[in-house]
Structures are given as C-alpha cells and as structure tokens.
Amino acid sequence: MKLIDTHAHLYAEEFQEDLTLVVERAKAVGVENVLLPNVDETTIIPLRKLTTHYPDFFLPMMGLHPTSVTANWKQQLETIYTQFLTLNCIAVGEIGIDLYWDQSLQQEQTVVFEEQLRWSIEKDLPVSIHSRNATFEVIQSIKNVGKEKLRGVFHSFGGNIDELKAIMEMSNFYVGINGVLTFKNSKLGETLRHCPRERVILETDAPYLTPHPYRGKRNESAYLSLILQKLAEVWEINREEAAYITSNNARNLFRFVNDK
C-alpha cells in the first residue's frame, strides 16, 4: 500500500527530538512521500534542511502563509520568491486567505495570494491553498488570476456542500482531507459523498489536526493510515483501493513519479 502525505510541517520544532523515528513510522505504514509547505521566512531553513537530508522522501513547496502576511508584505514576498527560484519546488504553498483570526489585513492577504498564484503559472506548478473562512474569496482570486491556467488543492478542506460544489466547478482543483474527517462530530464524511473520488487527496497537516484516537496529541505522517481508514469507510471500499485512488490523484496533481 502506497500513501502520500500531501501536506505536513515535519520541519516544525515539535519533531526536533525524534524526526528519524517519525520518518520510520511513516514509512512503516506505507507513506512514500511527504510534501512540505512553507509558512514564512522563519521556516525556510528548517524546511530546506529536511529536503537535503531526505531528498527522496520530503518534497518542498515554497510560499507565504496568509496568517504570516504583514504590512511589510512586499519584502516578505521578495524573500520567499528568491527561495522559490532556487529550490526545486513541487508546488507553491502554503498560500491563501484566512479570515478566521484577523480580517484587518484581508486586502494585503488577497494581493499576496494573487501574486503567488502568478508564480504558479510562471513555473507551471500547483498551489496548496489555505482558505479558512474564505473559500469564496479564494475562488474569486483564482478567477481573477485565471482559473484555466491554475491547478491545486484546497488544503484541510472542511467546508459545506455549497463550498465543495464551488470548488468542484473548477476542474483543476482538488480537496485535501485530513484528521478532521475522523472527528466525532465532523460532518465532513457526509459532505465527501458528494465529491468525485478523483478529486480527493490525503494529508495530515502534522503536527496539527491529529486524527482520532490520538486527537489532542502531536500529529505525524504515520497517522495518515487512520485518515485513509476513515475515508475507505465513507466510500465503502477497502483501504488498498482508497490508497490507490488518493495516491494516484496526488501524483496527477503534483506531477511527480515515485519509482520505488
């Protein structure tokens, strides 16, 4: 069984003490690649270290997270773009709009997001999108830049059917499903029954959003198997088939080949 964790922050300080074991546990359950989204200027060095030490396992993205956008966003983008040009990135991310915590910089977030969307067109790369409380604002920005030229994933999707339908209307976009699917009161499973299977990919968002039964503890890529199990139950198929579908979807989106 081959799995791809399409979104995890394993360069975070939470993994400094036992990263080797975290990687071993992930591989033991079938995880063959982990995609690493950048957050801001402070995460560039630790992200690059992981891709240097595990070049066949960790695949880097580069981007500026919306909650990290400041009034000095032009300088931030210049720093991130320099890294983007020098790193062999698999995607632009993590980028987007977040209106959950603070709406005071919505305009700046939108400008930054749309500029990074243009990077993805420039390099023909997918985007990993953070869209908390901002699904329709994100979709509008995608349309502003050119939805026909863009492709990507709405990372950590937990929206309703209307939001899902709006995303699915853009044929080049997927939804990233993580531990939220396993939460006791989550309605995500029912929403996913309305989603084409070929538009779903798996992620952990480690160290965040740890799936049941480990909720409240640090998340890690090995727990992708728990998300897979729940998705297989929702789809009423076996784990192997669900793994094949979601991993194939990830390869189609990110356009990489694993020869292992």
Per the principal axes of the C-alpha atoms, what is the gross shape? globular
Our estimate of the beta-strand percent is 5-15%
Largest sheet strand order: 1-2-3-4-5-6-7-8
Strands, total number: 8
What is the H-and-E element order?
EHEHEHEHEHEHEHEHH
Largest sheet: 8 strands, parallel
End-to-end Cα distance, whole Å, is 12 Å
Discrete helix count: 9
The SS-based structural class is alpha/beta
Oligomer: single chain
Unreliable stretches: none
Q: What is the percent of helical residues?
A: 40-55%
Determine the mean pLDDT. Answer: 97
Query: How big is the Rg?
Result: 17 Å
Any overview of this molecule?
The chain is α/β, with parallel strands linked by helices and 260 residues long. Helices cover 40% and strands 13% of the residues. It has nine helices and eight strands. An eight-stranded parallel sheet has the order 1-2-3-4-5-6-7-8, with helices on both faces. It starts with a strand and ends in a 6-residue tail after the last helix.
Quick overview:
With 260 residues, the chain is α/β, with parallel strands linked by helices. Helices cover 40% and strands 13% of the residues.
Question: How do the strands and helices of this protein lay out in sequence?
Answer:
Elements: E1 3-5, H1 19-28, E2 31-36, H2 44-53, E3 58-62, H3 73-86, E4 91-96, H4 106-123, E5 127-130, H5 135-145, E6 152-154, H6 161-168, E7 173-177, H7 188-192, E8 200-202, H8 224-235, H9 239-254
Parallel strand pairs: 1-2, 2-3, 3-4, 4-5, 5-6, 6-7, 7-8
Helix pairs in contact: 3-4, 4-5, 8-9
